[in-house]
């Protein structure tokens, strides 16, 4: 669903069916998430996202990890 902060200690979440729920807490953590976006570079057709990398049957012999976030660092250390 979608959420919005209401007041200093509240969140309202609207589910896909339109039903709304309100929650309150002393502290609220906002974790927005993200989606992978492949850059437009030569060889783009050979690239995979981190989600796709987790589904590989076997590890690649060679790989280039693009990105500076924690997911890129984790994959660089795994491979």
TrEMBL record:
Its cofactor is FAD. Transmembrane segments: none annotated. GO terms for biological process: cell redox homeostasis; cellular response to oxidative stress; glutathione metabolic process. GO terms for molecular function: flavin adenine dinucleotide binding; glutathione-disulfide reductase (NADPH) activity. The keyword Cell division does not apply. Gene3D superfamilies: FAD/NAD(P)-binding domain (3.50.50.60). Belongs to the class-I pyridine nucleotide-disulfide oxidoreductase family. This is Glutathione reductase. The lineage of its organism: Eukaryota, Viridiplantae, Streptophyta, Embryophyta, Tracheophyta.
């Amino acid at each position: 669903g979608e959420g919005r902060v209401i007041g200093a200690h509240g969140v309202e979440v609207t589910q896909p069916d339109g039903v709304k729920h309100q929650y309150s807490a002393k502290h609220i953590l906002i974790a927005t998430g993200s989606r992978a976006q492949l850059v437009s570079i030569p060889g783009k057709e050979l690239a995979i996202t981190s989600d796709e990398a987790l589904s590989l049957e076997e590890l690649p012999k060679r790989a280039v990890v693009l990105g500076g976030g924690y997911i890129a660092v984790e994959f660089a250390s795994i491979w």
